[in-house]
Amino acid sequence: MTVYLVNLVIVTIFSLLADIVVKDKYHYGKRKYNLLFLFIALLSLILVSGLRYKVGTDFAQYSEIYSVFGNQPISWGEQEFGFDALNKILYRINKNPQFFFLITSILINLGIVIFVREYSINLPLSMYFYITNYTYYVTMNGVRQYIAAVILALGFKFVLNKDFKRYVIVILIASTFHASAFIMIPVYFLAITDIKSIWNKGFSCLIGFAFVFYQPFVNIMFKFLENSSYAHYQSELSNLDDGANILRVIVWALPIVLFALRKKRAEEMFGEKSSIIFNFCFYGMCFMALAYRHKYFARLTMYFDIYYLLLFPMIIKLFNKKENRIIAYGMVVGYFLYSTFLLLSGDAWIYPYKYNLNIF
Fold first, then answer.
1. Does 252 fall in a domain?
2. Which UniProt keywords apply (predicted)?
3. Is residue 275 part of a domain?
């Protein structure tokens, strides 16, 4: 636990320093940060994640894939050839699976820090919540899906500009790491419309139906997926005793409720961008609600939890000064307790932490 606490302190302090030591805060309308301090925060994130050993539910699986298939030719004809190519190129450089975890940690954390630096209205808060809302720890599982999620996040400007042609190219690239990235095609069209639109109401009704009538929903869903690579998940998803912790559902829902209470004010303060960010987070919350039925749906939240890092700092600007202070302190303390509870409870096998310095 000490490693995780030290990492949180380092990331928070140096993110704050990156923000406050800059004299000229803006350059051509863009927020400036001290890159040295920001790099130190990033380095801490990378090292803790990249040097992990037997940490996370997927560690053994990724190690086995790397060791067993690394020396085989790249399968360019496969749908997820991007991940296959990354795996096998890294294997040709270094046969130690720990090298794979270090490089993917660099890719994921660098991408997320770039994303936060570009779009957050408060970088230190976003970096703090990156760890305490558990997103950082979840990146240590689902590696290839988080690579896909980061690629999509770096293409977020195309969503803001409503440039579908360029965004679909980003989706295609992301899908070479995880085919589920294709869900972002319908998400794009939902996200650029008002949350009260008929399309978003329809999506909400679908999620409500799926939550209440879960087993019929699973049966219908797999009629469409029976010839796909996901068909074998039907029996697993029918297990109703394997849902996500209800606390995670509540934690995902609370920011949505707070933001919704001041959504009009958010649009006045931050423009249409805030509505699109809210929509992304709302979809993530919906999938987390389904994860209460079966934790597999939590995998889909990996495409949306990154946008919560932008939502959190906006929330604490939406109320009056006293309320903002109470909400800010409440969120900072609350999310710290939340992440600590999940770590100590063994969620996703992130704790206890072990490391391996033998890379080369």
1. no
2. Membrane, Transmembrane, Transmembrane helix
3. no
